[in-house]
Structure formats: C-alpha cells, structure tokens
User: What shape does this take?
Amino acid sequence: MVDLAPAAPARSPGRSAATSARARWPLLLEIVALGGLAWLALRLRTANLDAYTGSFDEGIRVQQLLLMSAGYRPFRDIFASQGPLLLDLLYPFYLLFGQTLTAARAGVVVCSVVALAGAWWSMRQAAGPLAGVAAILILGISPTFLEGSRLALAEIPTIGPAVLALGCLLAYERTGRRWLLIVSALWCALSVLIKPMAVPFGAVVAVLLLWPPGARRRPALAWPWRRVAADLAIYGTVFGVACAITILLLGPAGVWDNLGAYRTGAGSTAGAKAAENLRLTYNIMSRESPGLYALAAVGTLLGLWLRPRLTVALLAWAGAVFGLFVEYGDLADKHIVYLLPPVALLAALGAGLGWQSAWRAWAVFTGRIAPHGRQRQAFTVAASLLGAAGIVGYLATVPTLHRADQYLLREAPRVAAERRDRAADLEIAEIIRSHTPPDGWVLADNPLAASMARRLVIPYLVDTSGTRIDAGSLTAPLALDYVQRYQPSAIVTWPRRLGKLDRFVGQLPALGYRLEKSYPIGWKVYVRAQ
Assistant: This one.
C-alpha cells in the first residue's frame, strides 16, 4: 500500500538546538533563583544564632535535651507539654552540634529549611516555577517565620511536615498514585505529633479529599463518593495508626499526664481571652508587609477561579488556625506563626497564576496560541494585570522586610539582654554552679541559667510555667514532694511561676534552704544549707 500522507517536514539541526536552548533557559533561571534564595535563607537563619533571648520556653527545651543526654526519657521521666516527638526530633541535632542551646536551635533551622523546600514543591505543582520561588522568598524573609526559625521552639518544626503533606496531596491529585496519599498521612501525623496545635492543617486534608480532582459541579449521586470514602479511609487509618504506635511506644499514661490532663486544665478558659488573642494576632501579623496581604488577596481571587480546590483548602487552613486562636486559653507570641503558611502560600499562588496568565496573554498576542474567546481573553488580561500589581506591590515592601530582619538579628538580642537582665542570668548560673555538685539537682524557674551552669533540673519539674500551675498540673504539695525526694542544691523562683505557690515558698526554710540572693526583676535564689 502506498502511503499518501504528507511527509513531516525535516527539522533543521540549528533550529532544534535553538529551541532546546530556549526551553532550558526557564529551568536555569529557576535553579539560579532557588540557589540565591536558599543562600539568603540560610544566612538569615544562621547569623548570630547564639544570640541571647532570655526565653523561658527555650530554657525548658535545652534542659529537656540535657536530661535526655543523661539518660532520662520524655514522658516517662521528663515532663514534656509540647508533642510526643518534638524532643526526639531535636535531640540528634543537640548531640551533633555540641549540646548547647545553639545546637538545639540548629535543629529548628534545618526544620525551617525543610518547610521552605516543601512550600516550593507544593506551589510549583499548583501554579508553576514562579509560584514555588515566590513561596521560598515570602517565607524565607518573613520576620515572623524567621524569628521562629531561629528559636528552639516547637512551632516551626511542625510546619515542614505539614507543607510536605500538602505537596504529597497535590502530587496524588496529579498522578493518582495512592502511595502519595499514605506518605501525606504520615507527614501529617508527624506534624501533629511534634505539636498538637498543628491540627488545623486537617482542614486542608478535608477539603482536598472531600473534593476530589476532576470532580465538577454535578448532582450528589454522580459525585465520586466511592473514591472519596476510600481516600478518607486510607488517610485516616494511616494517620491514626502512626499516632497510636507513637503514643504506645512512649507510654499512654505519661503522654496523657503531660499532654491530655495538662492541656485540658490549661484550656479551661477557652474563648475567655478571645479579644486579647485577636489583639495579639493583629500585633504579630502586622509585622509582615502590606504587600504580602495584597498578594494573598490576588491569590485568593485568581485561585478561586483557576485553582478552586487548593484555594478553598488554604482558606480553610487559615480559618481553622484563626478559630483556634480565638478559642485558645493560653495563646502566646510564638503561636501566631501558624497563621503565616496559608497566607504565604496564597500569596505565592497569586504570583504564579498571575505570571501564567501574563504568559498566555503574551502567547495569544504574538500568535503562538489561538485565542479562546473574548470573555476568556479579557479574563486572562485582567488576571495578568492583577498578578503583576500584586507582585510589584510585594516586591516594593522587600526593603522594609529586610530592615525588620536585620533588627531581629542585630538589635533584638541587645534589647532582650537589657529587658530581661542577662547579667542576672549569668550570675544566677554561677550561683547554681558553685553550690551544686556536677551530679546534683536544681529546681529552677530559670531553666536557661541552670543549663548555662550545666546542672540538671528535676525531670518532672523541668516546666514550672504559670500555665502549668494554673492548670493544676503543678501544685505546692507536688513541688514539696519532689524537693524532698531529689534534695536539689539550689532553687530559683520567680513571682509568676513557683513564686505563685505561697505554701511551697513558705516551707523552704523548714526544708533547710536559705535565700542567697534576690533580684529586682523578681528572681530569688535559695541554696541548701550544708
């Protein structure tokens, strides 16, 4: 049979090479941009990493890790009120980098870089390379995210697994491979196990699984309920089994005592501080640039039209976090960072979709692709202009963000040293060291000073926060019992922590303790008579 089909035109070798070179340029630009942003992010996170903050929560963390290096375990011995896996996550970095507070912070820096990588991957899948680059830029230089990325706290380590779980869900949407669903559930479980306050990410999972890819507006009976039910069953089973195994290995009784009972008591004022929590949220989030919120608004508008599933999921995540803040009974500055990832990802989505619309409009204008109707073309042009305005608006505020970051790195430690009296911390550390043998015990409302002295605090009383006292988890009889059991050589109190337990403080002279020194900031140091 004679083939009557026209032969394909032969490609010119020179033209093919030129086309291939043009195709490589976007990838090369993306690699250069990612390399530059990665360098910037690491520089911001590691510069002056040993800076003084005077943070009580960081003092608790480094003391918990010091106790682990002495053979004690979280929940079994050490009181740990964050999440079941936080200390085990940070402990290898603590050992690897020198068993200091800076070493613990290095672990959080690594977790922050993982979060940036997860944000890039998620947004690149959702709206192209520019969206991924924008996600790294926005989170990389955000003052709120940067501050949390340099402290030995639990919040940033939970965000990395969450955005990786989002990336796996988007990859599952694109490929249909169920193993990605399982991996996403494992990442989600890790996030919650590091700190249960990450649970609002479940709103993202609910939206993306209940609204499967490819499903359009259709009658309820035509909705793919079988696939939805299977996905929910797999995700829920993997998540639940991962959490159950972790809790069983750590000891359910200890986990409940440290987390369940304590948090139940601490949450007894849920909703009572709604107005105060909203003011705190506003104060922290106002440190971010107006350009971020403008670009996030652009991302919301474009996303609802072009990527409705993901946009609704991100909005649900932000709404769930906001609702948690309203009801939370003990909201602190460090918690507000949980609101930043969904806002930042919406902004990155706006940058990516705006760029894609601009490219399409230019391709139609130059004749590379055919137009798809006047209405569609008008929307493409409008989306291009909106995205460009959002990108320019955000980039215009980058210098302000840079100044805020530099203040955080250089000036904030000096302010903290003056406000929290670093000299007093150093002196307290010296008193503890001089009155406590290397194998002796300490009970301290200032765990940072105890860690500087390299002395162990009583494991179950490592956290003496006012919240724990108010929740009924730490009482005067309990504290007195542990003092008689461990016989600490030094006890440090502060008015809003152990100092609130009048019966405990009043019994110290009878137990053989004398007041060694008191400080205007409120510290009182007691030492045991020899």
